[in-house]
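Bit of a strange request maybe. I'm writing a small parser for structure token strings and I need a real example to test against, not something I typed by hand. Could someone generate the tokens for this chain?
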Amino acid sequence: MQKETEGIHGGEIWQASQCLEHEHNTNTAIYQLLGDLGFQSTDRPRIWKKGTQTVINCLVDDIRSCATDYHLDLPYLFDKNTTIITDNYITCPTQYKVIRLPISFIGIYHYVPQQQQWDPVRDFAFAVNRIDQRRFLLLLELGLKVHLHKGHVNFNCYRPPTVPIFGAHTSPHKETALKYWAEQWEQHTGPEDKASYQRSYDVLTAQIPVCNYEIEHDEIFTQSYLSIVAETYSSDNNISLSEKLFRALVTPAPWTVSSGRYTVAYLHSMGFDTVSELVDHNHYDRLIEVQDKQRIFVWKSLEIIKLLKAQDRDALKLRFQQAAQHNQQLLAKMFAQWPADFEAWTDQLRRTLLS
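Reply from user aminoacidic:
Good idea to test on real output. This should exercise your parser:
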């Protein structure tokens, strides 16, 4: 009998890193500074105003979520009197001011997973909590290309504001999950995608919400040949990172990631080991969305699995352990630097907002 669907946010990273508490403390300090400078909060908690000035504090989230018109291109989401405080890496010019947190902020995700042995028994791991169009199509593409029982698959079909509390092990009501699944198909999927995925959609509908494994959620990553990571936000001009990718980086197992353009290149620039000699991230990382990025991403991920299966498992295991240990140490170093970096950054933020 299929195990009840697990809440994705009940994973080890939340408890071991305490990243949510660190994120909360960072937000609190920024809001305190804004208040000290005479800014007033609005009915949208992340948006503060003083006269003609607007400051938006958007951490661990896509800045587009704070816009009033989601259809505007990224450079024009906000007016020239707006300042965005974010950890996002925006790769295009903007008419508004962007103030990024120090990169050491991502040290809040540092931890050492309990699972330290890569011992794959299935081809892939694919775990998604919230449903959106990109991740919906990723699952349909996976279902079209491979039988889901070949992987560890968890697709909960949550939709905000019904996302479960972090740390909770809850199951979405099947009727609610099926409702969101059907709405995504009927209201957000175009005719071409419907023609391509009708068969996959029909087959998968009977399985929604999907959780096809009995082991603990954190075990699926080391018990799969490849972890297929789907970051929450994806954009050609904005890189937004979350616990999903950092969990992959510190786990001794290979991964690919569906995310913003050049996300893996950005990780390289910060010093992370992405095992790129074994996993060809560049094949999909360089693509923009209109280049059929998601289909190519799934195809490449499945090809990487075939290549990994053909290699010496013991040698691979050692290489993945080396990468995970390097990334664990790098995040720990960033976390140690974070308090001093944040203090210097807040001093500069104060001067900038006063000028």
